[in-house]
Design brief:
This protein is mainly alpha-helical. The protein is built from 11 helices and 3 strands, in the order ααααααααααβββα. Strands 1-2-3 form a 3-stranded antiparallel β-sheet, with helices on one face.
């Protein structure tokens, strides 16, 4: 079992691709307030998270401003928001298994705190600040862009969102789970029909959607299911 009190710096630094001169910075970055409440007199990561948020924002803004010249201001804002939101930061943190290095109280760890999106995304921002304070903007930028650039590249070409396929891919990771689409309502004359479809996971309704065709209604039901599941 991983001991949260002793961070494996060798493994952590390999994962971050950065070696700290001041290890106290990264220790604080990975200390959650619940742990600091349990072990009095130690620093936790909220101040670093505040700084990391700003470093992240300027690095991402700078990169997309220079590399997406075709995008107007409104779209740049939307793109930046999608790259620095909790959902994205959680995904970046998961890529480097950050959860196993975070120091949490026993209660927080027992209830799955090491995989909670809010805790992981905050810790990721704190790590950015720790790298920035330890080595300056260049290593912080390199660290951020390692996650952001592939994210931008993978999201650019997708115009039509095939929610049904996305949902199917998630569900089929568990072979025993079964997805079905059920038409629950059909209204309107032939030239102006409206369909309502539910998507069921086994016997549970996990999404509902409407549209002018069954296919559209199924896509909307799948979209709602994905949103409710946090995707």
């Amino acid at each position: 079992m991983h001991n949260p009190e002793s961070i494996n710096y060798k493994e952590l630094q390999k994962s971050l691709r950065y070696e700290f001169k001041n290890k106290e910075l990264i220790t604080t970055a990975l200390t959650h307030s619940s742990y600091a409440n349990e072990i009095k007199g130690i620093r936790y990561n909220e101040r670093l998270e505040f700084l990391g948020d700003s470093v992240l924002s300027i690095v991402v803004s700078d990169y997309i401003y220079l590399n997406c010249p075709e995008l107007p201001e409104g779209k740049l804002t939307k793109l930046r928001a999608s790259l620095v939101c909790e959902k994205s930061l959680y995904a970046y943190a998961k890529q480097i298994e950050l959860g196993k290095f975070i120091r949490l109280s026993k209660g927080e760890r027992r209830t799955g705190g090491d995989d909670r999106p809010s805790i992981l995304s905050d810790a990721f921002e704190a790590v950015i600040a720790a790298i920035y304070l330890d080595g300056g903007i260049k290593p912080a930028r390199d660290f951020i862009l390692r996650f952001v650039i592939p994210d931008i590249k993978s999201s650019k070409p997708k115009k039509f969102k095939d929610y049904k396929t996305a949902l199917q891919e998630i569900i089929q990771k568990n072979p025993e789970e079964r997805l079905t689409y059920v038409l629950v309502k059909e209204t309107g004359p032939d030239h102006d029909k409206h369909f309502v479809v539910e998507v069921h996971l086994n016997s549970n309704v996990i999404g509902k959607g409407g549209g002018r065709s069954k296919k559209e209604a199924e896509q909307q039901a799948a979209r709602e299911a994905l949103e409710l599941m946090g995707y």
